[in-house]
């Protein structure tokens, strides 16, 4: 009798230990995924301005792989093939689509990282892959708007925002997506986007690196079991992300948009999570955010596979701060401005805007002063305290140059210290014909006949100016980028040609 009791207790102990160990492994999964991402990162996608031709070989090489079923599901307006890749055999169906906006590619990169991961083995994740693919069937549609991606633009070739085309379905791409929802009847959907890198997480200086939305299916913002699961999934992903981007997760206001795919897919009975990849300082190509997508999406799929998402409290969804518009790329604070013989203090809010070139495969920055005055409620991803410094328009260097190559040989630091921010090209310059609109030299280049700005730098001007202490130039701001003349590092400058 004693022996039977002992054996029973021992068996209970081992069962408990196994359960605790299994739960510990699940809790550690996001960290392990984060650490292993570099192993499975798709190395052919290294910058975000890629096109459909860059991902087609990645799909083609998986044709014939028994892990996948790849099928053509339609064509874009310009006739580009739309493909869907299916993986897994489980009862829970998950539809994930990326780049319905052509200039929002972060999750497309992460999707191919996920495919590489699903093909891995003997790396400590075999049990996870087995459980995931036995409990879910995943349907990926990478790059739903290839025509937009070709031009690196948000809208389709027709000029229509596809995410406002769920009701009318005037675009062939929207027809394809609606057809997949009707045919597959997915239990879960992931609507994967990018957002402005200047959104803040609430009223804070922190950029919203990832934002979520559990889309509303009616104007009353009702919560049924379908939408509740969206909230629970988001709560789980937020917990995972806080370790890596603390205070940089936000959510959209859940106003109902009757034309939106997210709102309608939720209404049609699929638990829908909208993910927006925003900004992260020092990550202009969104490679770190891509890594976060990889980890967060796989972690969410794990919660779907084992149904652990139901343990999350939906009310925690509302504790995530809303997206705010409180961040500029650069804020100059407390600068002394002199106008009409008078002086006053002002802040400047500056944004660096991307301008595409080389068939939209590359970009340069063109920076504007977006606001001027009291900006104390706003923040800058980069800030200068200009207290005691006077803002002035830089001078035009008296010597003219034939071409940008000559300008690149100048001692930029010497010119900036003398207060020269502008250099002029002669009439025989063919920079426009060559398609040159920027220079890596930290100077503002004026084409022949282009007048230099007059007056004190202000609202709407290109963000080129100097900050002086007395007669000494302390900082030069060229095209929205700051150069500390006491600690000068030109590097690859972001000069502009106008």
TrEMBL record:
Peptidase M14 domain sequence ranges: 48-304
InterPro entries for this protein: Peptidase_M14 (IPR000834)
One GO location term (cellular component): extracellular space
Lineage: superkingdom: Bacteria
Signal peptide span: 1-24
Gene Ontology BP annotations: proteolysis
Cofactor: Zn(2+)
Family of the protein in this entry: Belongs to the peptidase M14 family.
Name of protein: Peptidase M14
Species whose genome carries this gene: Dyadobacter chenwenxiniae
């Amino acid at each position: 009798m004693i022996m039977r009791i002992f054996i029973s207790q021992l068996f209970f102990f081992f069962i408990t230990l196994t359960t605790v160990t299994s739960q510990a492994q699940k809790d550690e999964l996001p960290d392990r995924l984060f650490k292993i991402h570099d192993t499975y990162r798709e190395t052919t996608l290294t910058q975000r301005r890629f096109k459909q031709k860059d991902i087609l070989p990645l799909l083609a090489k998986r044709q014939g792989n028994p892990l996948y079923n790849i099928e053509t599901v339609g064509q874009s307006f310009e006739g580009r093939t739309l493909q869907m890749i299916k993986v897994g055999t489980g009862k829970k169906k998950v539809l994930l689509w990326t780049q319905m906006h052509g200039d929002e590619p972060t999750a497309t990169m992460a999707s191919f990282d996920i495919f590489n991961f699903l093909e891995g083995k003997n790396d400590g994740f075999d049990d996870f892959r087995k459980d995931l693919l036995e409990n879910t069937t995943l349907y990926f549609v990478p790059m739903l708007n290839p025509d937009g991606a070709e031009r690196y633009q948000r809208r389709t070739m027709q000029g229509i925002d596809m995410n406002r085309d769920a009701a009318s379905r005037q675009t062939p791409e929207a027809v394809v997506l609606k057809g997949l929802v009707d045919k597959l009847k997915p239990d879960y959907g992931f609507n994967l986007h990018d957002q402005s890198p200047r959104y803040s997480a609430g009223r804070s200086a922190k950029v919203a690196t990832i934002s979520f939305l559990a889309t509303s299916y009616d104007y009353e913002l009702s919560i049924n079991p379908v939408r509740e699961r969206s909230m629970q999934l988001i709560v789980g992903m937020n917990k995972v992300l806080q370790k890596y981007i603390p205070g940089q997760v936000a959510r959209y206001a859940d106003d109902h948009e009757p034309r939106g795919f997210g709102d309608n897919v939720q209404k049609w009975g699929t638990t829908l999570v909208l993910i927006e990849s925003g900004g992260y300082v020092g990550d202009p190509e969104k490679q770190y955010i891509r890594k976060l997508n990889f980890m967060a999406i796989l972690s969410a799929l794990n919660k779907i596979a084992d149904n652990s998402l139901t343990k999350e409290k939906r009310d925690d969804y509302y504790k995530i701060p809303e997206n705010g518009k409180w961040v500029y790329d650069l804020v100059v604070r407390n600068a002394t401005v002199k106008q009409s013989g008078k002086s006053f203090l002002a802040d400047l809010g500056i944004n660096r805007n991307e301008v595409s070139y080389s068939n939209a495969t590359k970009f340069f920055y063109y920076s504007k002063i977006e606001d001027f005055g009291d900006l104390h409620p706003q923040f800058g991803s980069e800030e200068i305290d200009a207290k005691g410094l006077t803002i002035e328009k830089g001078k035009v260097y008296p010597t003219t140059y034939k071409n940008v190559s000559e300008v690149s040989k100048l001692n930029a630091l010497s010119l900036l210290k003398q207060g020269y921010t502008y250099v002029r090209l002669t009439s025989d310059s063919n920079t426009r014909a060559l398609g040159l609109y920027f220079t890596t030299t930290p100077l503002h280049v004026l084409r022949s006949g282009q007048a230099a700005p007059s007056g004190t730098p202000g609202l709407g001007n290109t963000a080129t100016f100097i900050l002086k202490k007395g007669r000494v130039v302390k900082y030069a701001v060229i095209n929205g980028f700051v150069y500390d003349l006491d600690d000068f590092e030109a590097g690859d400058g972001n000069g502009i040609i106008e």
